[in-house]
Amino acid sequence: MERKWVYxxxxxxxxxxxxxxxxxxxxxxxxxxxxxxxxxxxxxMSVEEAAGLVGVTxxxxxxxxxxxxxxxxxxx
Length: 76
Prior knowledge:
Blueprint: H1 15-42, H2 47-54, H3 58-71
């Protein structure tokens, strides 16, 4: 039988504060992913290719593309 190691984690922040920080950063990650997609389009890649590389469907890629063209950064 294999022994499981238990590690003690230093709790610099309460779990609730960690949850808040994660929630703030999740939006940044979504915008980052969308900007990465738009940059690929600007470099000549098709919507289908760019969507595949950032891990979203073609339909999502086209939605981001349209939002970018209508509203720029704010649309993302």
